[in-house]
From TrEMBL:
Pfam families for the chain: LRR_1 (PF00560), LRR_8 (PF13855), LRRNT_2 (PF08263), PK_Tyr_Ser-Thr (PF07714)
Positions contributing to ATP binding: 332
Any one annotated GO CC term: membrane
Keywords: ATP-binding, Leucine-rich repeat, Membrane, Nucleotide-binding, Phosphoprotein, Repeat, Signal, Transmembrane, Transmembrane helix
Gene Ontology molecular-function annotations: ATP binding; protein kinase activity
Domain of life: Eukaryota
Domain spans labelled Protein kinase: 304-580
Segments crossing the lipid bilayer: 227-252
Skewed-composition ranges (Pro residues): 594-604
Protein name, per record: Protein kinase domain-containing protein
Localization: Membrane
Amino acid sequence: DLGEDRQALLEFVKKLPHSRSLNWKESSPVCNNWTGVTCNEDRSRVIAVRLPGVGFQGSIPPSTLSRLSALQVLSLRSNGITGGFPDDFFNLKNLSFLYLQYNKLSGPLPANFSVWHNLTIVNLSNNRFNGSIPSSFLNLTRLAALNLANNSLSGEIPDLNLPSLQQLNLSNNNFTGSIPMSLRRFPNSVFAGNNIPFESSPPVSPVLAPSTVPSPNSRNARGLSEAAVLGIIIAASILGLVAFVFLIIVYCSRKKSKEDEYSAKFQKGGMSPEKVVSRTQDANNRLTFFEGCSYAFDLEDLLRASAEVLGKGTFGMAYKAVLEDATTVVVKRLKEVNVGKRDFEQQMEVVGSIKHENVVELKAFYYSKDEKLMVYDYYSQGSVSAMLHGKRGGDRIPLDWETRMRIAIGAARGIARIHTENAGKFVHGNIKSSNIFLNSQRYGCVSDLGLSTIMSPLAPPISRAAGYRAPEVTDTRKAAQPSDVYSFGVVLLELLTGKSPIHTTGGDEIIHLVRWVHSVVREEWTAEVFDVELMRYPNIEEEMVEMLQIAMSCVVRMPDQRPKMSDVVKMIENVRQPETENQPSSGKGSESSTPPPPAMGRES
Ligand SMILES: Nc1ncnc2c1ncn2[C@@H]1O[C@H](COP(=O)(O)OP(=O)(O)OP(=O)(O)O)[C@@H](O)[C@H]1O
C-alpha cells in the first residue's frame, strides 16, 4: 500500500547519497508533494519515480525501490549510480518505462528480461554494461524503443524480431557478427561503432520512423468532456444550419430589393451570426485581393456561400465559407475597428504583403462602413489549440514531440518575419495557439496578425487572450514586440505541458500556466511540468528541458529582458541543429533517437 511505498522511498534516499536535496518529508503526503513521485488515480500506490540528475552516488540499495511493486515508470538517468543492474528489480512486474542512461552501471544485463512483460521503453545507454544482449528480450512484445548505445556489450546481436520495436540504438559497443535479418530495417548508424561489417547499402539517415509507441496505460483524462464537445458540435451545426438558411432567406429577400432593411437590421442588431456578410452600402462591393491570389470570387459569391461558424474570437466572428465552386475560405468579420478606411487599408496592405511559409496568408479584405472582412485559406486540421486541448483519448491523435518542435520553430520563424516588417516595428499582437496552424510541411504557421493596433481596446476582465498577454500590456493596442515574445513563450509552455494558459483544476482553482510552471521549476522538479502524452517518446527529456528554458526566458516579467524573436529562433534551432537535420548522427554521445525534422524551409 501507499504507506509501504513511502517507507521504501524513504529508505532509498536515506541509503543512497545524493547532492541535490529532495523535499521528501515524513510529514508531507507522498502523492502530489514529493518531488519526482507520481501516484495512481486513487492515490493508493506509487506508479512513477523520476529522479534524473539528483546526484546519486553509489549503488541502488537492495530492497528499496524494488518494493514499489506498482511502479510503471522509473527514471534515474544522469546520476552517478554504480554497481550492477539491481537483481531485485525483478519484483517490479509492472515496469513499462525504464530510464537508467548516463550512469556508471556495470556488469551483465539480467538474463531474464521476460519478467517485465510490459516494458515499452528501455534506455540503458551510456553505462558500462558488458556481456551480451539476453535473448529474453525476444519476449518483450511491447518493446517500442531500446537504447543500449555506449556500453561495452559484446557477442552477437540476437534476432530481435519484435514488430512493435520502433527505435533502436546499439551503437558504440563491442558487438560482433552480422546484423540479424529482423533488424535490417534500421539504418546502419544504429549499429555503428561495433565490429559489425555493413552491407554495401547506400548510407541511410539515422532518422527512424516517427514513433507509434503505444501510450502508457494510465493517462489523465483532460480537456472537454464528451458531453461538452458533443454540445459544442451540435450547437455549431445548428448555428451553421441557421446561417445557411438565413443566407438563403437573406439572399432571396435581397433579390426582392429589400436591401436597406437588413442593412439597417445588421447595424442595429450588431454581430448576429446569421450571415457571413451583410449587404453593405459600399457602392463597389468589392473585395480587395492581394497580388498572386488565385481566388476568383467576389462579395456576392461570399454572400451565397454556405457558412459554418468556426468561433467567436477576440476581434469578431470567424466563418468557414464554402463557395459554389467548392473553394473553402475563412471569413473573419471584424467588430469594433477603431480606425478609418485609409488606416485600415494600409494595415491590411502590410499584412497582405507578408508572404512567408510560416505566416498564414491574408488573401483578401473588405472595408465598408458597416462591414470589415478578412479572407484567409481554410486550415482543415484546425488550430494548434484544438490539437493540444481537443478531447484527449479516444480517436484523438496526440501531438508527438516532433510535431510540437515543428510548430515551435515554424511559429517562431513566422513571428520573427513579422517583426521585420514596417522597418522592424510591426507587431503581431495576438499570438496564441488558436492562431497557429500547421502548414503543408507540418510546421507552425501564424495567423491573425496586425489587428490589435486597429481595433478598440479589449474590455479587461475576460478575454481568452488574457493568459497570453504580457503583464505590461494593459491596453491591447499597446502590444509591442517584447509582448509578442511573451505570448510566444506561453505557447511554448502550452506545447510542453499540454495545459491551457488559464485552466481550472478539479477544485475549480484557476491556474495561470506561467505562474504554475514557475512554481514547479522553483521546487526543482522540472520534469513534472511536461505533458504526460510526451512520456511515450524516448530520449526527448534534454530537448524538452532546453525548450522549457527558452520558454521561461520569453515569459520573464521585464520586457527588455526578453530575447528578440530572431534570437528565439536561433535558440530553438540550437536545440535541433538545422545543419544536422538530414545528416546521420555519429551515435557516440547522441542520446536523441527521435527523428530530426527535414529541412525546415527557412527564410532566404
Ligand atoms: N484559417 C483558418 N482555418 C481554420 N480555422 C480557423 C482559421 N482561422 C481561424 N480559425 C478558427 O476559428 C476559430 C475562431 O477564430 P478567431 O481567430 O476568430 O478566434 P480565436 O483565435 O479564438 O481568438 P482571436 O480572435 O483572439 O484570434 C478558432 O478556433 C480558430 O482556430
